[in-house]
Amino acid sequence: MARDSAIPPESFEEILAWLNPDRDVAANMYVQLRHDLAKLFIWGRCADPEGMTDEVFDRVAKKVHEVRQTYEGDPRLYFRAVANNLIKENFKKIKTHVSLEGVDLPQQQTIRTAEEIADIDDCLQSCLLKLGAEKRKLILAYYAKEKQAKIDYRHGLAQRLEISLETLRVRVFRIRASIAECIESCLERKARRK
Predict the structure, then answer these.
(1) Which of 161, 71, 58, 179 is CA-nearest to residue 124?
(2) What is the mean pLDDT of the chain?
(3) How far apart, in whole angstroms, are the C-alpha atoms of residue 80 and residue 49?
(4) How many whole angstroms separate alpha carbon 174 and alpha carbon 133?
(5) How far apart are CA 15 and CA 61, in angstroms?
(6) Per-residue pLDDT tens digits for 17-46
(7) Radius of gyration of the chain (CA)
(8) Which residues contact 187 (CB under 8 A, 6 or more apart)?
(9) Which of 5, 106, 143, 182 is deepest in the core (most CB within 10 A)?
(10) Which residue, 125, 111, 53, 114, is CA-closest to 83?
(11) Is the pTM of this model over 0.90?
(12) Nearest alpha-carbon partner for 17 in 67, 86, 51
């Protein structure tokens, strides 16, 4: 973790004084606190526990003068709170930085001719007719609306069917998968005939 180490030495002295007025006790508390924070980062599955521990002390050192005046209670708890915030920041960074190694990127879609679009539409209509009336009605209702109306309608649809929204999604997924399979085989048959 990149660190800004331009922290004045007097801030370190103030941290020790905040931990305990006895310098020897404060030094022992400092060492133990570093150890505890590193463990906290390890448990939080952070990549650089030592670097993040340094970052906690850097952040506290920048604010120790003003925080020390008003803070009540064990100062080690303040360090732990800073560490917890750092762990949260770390998770946000991980979520926004995703490796693309080993990911198969989708092929660029080809432009379809009017004839291909007509074939797909014919196959879709044919496959919808092959569905039972209930499944056809459900799939058409599920995709009937757009935006917020779609969300509200799907909630209402699930309530009318007396099922959860998740169950509704699973049912529609299965119907859609069977339609996709049907369309694919229909298009293959059409291609063989040409």
Answers:
(1) 179
(2) 85
(3) 13
(4) 15
(5) 7
(6) 999 999 899 999 999 999 999 999 888 888
(7) 31
(8) 119, 120, 123
(9) 182
(10) 53
(11) no
(12) 67
Determine contact, residues 66/47, Cβ cutoff 8 Å: no
Buried/exposed 23-56: b ≥16 CB within 10 Å, e otherwise: eeebeebbeebbeebbebbeebebeebeebbbbb
Assign residue 101 a region: left if phi > 0, alpha if psi is -120 to 50, beta otherwise? beta
State how far the Cα of 120 lies from the Cα of 187, in Å rounded to an integer.
7
Enter the tokens of residue 159.
């309530």
CA distances from 113 to 16, 117, 118, 179, 183 (A): 75, 6, 9, 22, 17
| Residue 110, pLDDT above cutoff 70 | no
Report d(CA 92, CA 17) in Å as an integer. 34
| Predicted pLDDT at 93 | 76
Alpha-carbon span 10 to 4, nearest angstrom? 16
Token pair of 154, please? 């799907």
d(C-alpha 102, C-alpha 161), whole Å? 42
User: Tokens 């925080």 correspond to what residue?
Assistant: 67
Sequence-distant (6+) residues with CB within 8 A of 60 are: 15, 67, 78, 79, 82
Query: Is residue 182 helix, strand or coil?
Result: helix
Q: Which residues, 6+ apart, have CB-to-CB distance to 80 below 8 Å? A: 36, 37, 40
The amino acid that residue 45 corresponds to is: R
